[in-house]
Amino acid sequence: MSLRSFFDTYADLLFAFLRHRMEGSRADVEDAWQETLAAAVRGVGSYRGESSLFTWMCGIARRKAADAARRAGRRSSEVVEAAALPPLGDEPFEVATIERTDVKDRVIEVLGGLPVDQRTALVDRCVHRRSVPDIARRLGRTYKATESLLSRAREAFRAAWEEWEHEED
Amino acid sequence: MRKTDSRDALERNLDLLLPHVLGREARPSTAARQAAWKRLAGEERVGDADRALALFAAGLVFVVAAAAAALALDLAPGSLATVVTALVVLNLAAIPVAGVAIVLSRRHRYAEA
Fold first, then answer.
1. Which of A8, A42, A51, B16 is disulfide-compatible with A55, CB 3.0–4.6 A?
2. Which of B1, B12, B15, B22 to mutate to test the interface with A (most CBs of A within 10 A)?
3. Cα dist. A43→A35, A39, A57, A107, B22 in Å?
């Protein structure tokens, strides 16, 4: 993977990760984001593959966010949520659940661990509200193949989410 | 819960969660992206320069050690100069080779284990 595709694959997700856990201004987030990316590039040789590459980078981002909070004289926004997360396949989540920092963290970590084509399709569908034919065109796939890709992406997301729930037990 | 209901609930929750987490506010601006990319590319160039320098320094140490060994063994002055010159030339020649190796290794550096 070249530096460019490394950047294109992970940079925006890391920004979202920091944006949700830092209380500072957008400029503070951008600084911490750049520091995280630079530290990841410098330290990638020490990555041992014990977790996904993106989870490893989230660890760096947490430290950078804590450093920024310390510099600004704020308490670190590390939040420990007591309540377990509801499964994705039950009732619709309540607003209070969606607002939880650990939920947002986990959504981003799970997305970062998905294969790039699955993640792209899922983000296109759920965030950008693109139609299946539109996503198929963008990805150079047939309609059927795109539907199948989206279905696999949702199931992969659910599997990773539940895996985490079990880790928490 | 039936399998279809569970699939529908999953779809609904992802439609709720993802836009909330990855909405416009959580995306970097184009200018911020460009600045971050510029810094990252700079980091990599500095990293490569550091590695090339380390290789060169290691080579120099090797040359000095070889020269010291040659002196200790009391080789003929003519042949010592030849040996040292050859080693220095070899060390310099290794720089572009190391450069190519570093550039090639970049392709794999960010790959998942």
1. A51
2. B22
3. 12, 6, 10, 25, 27
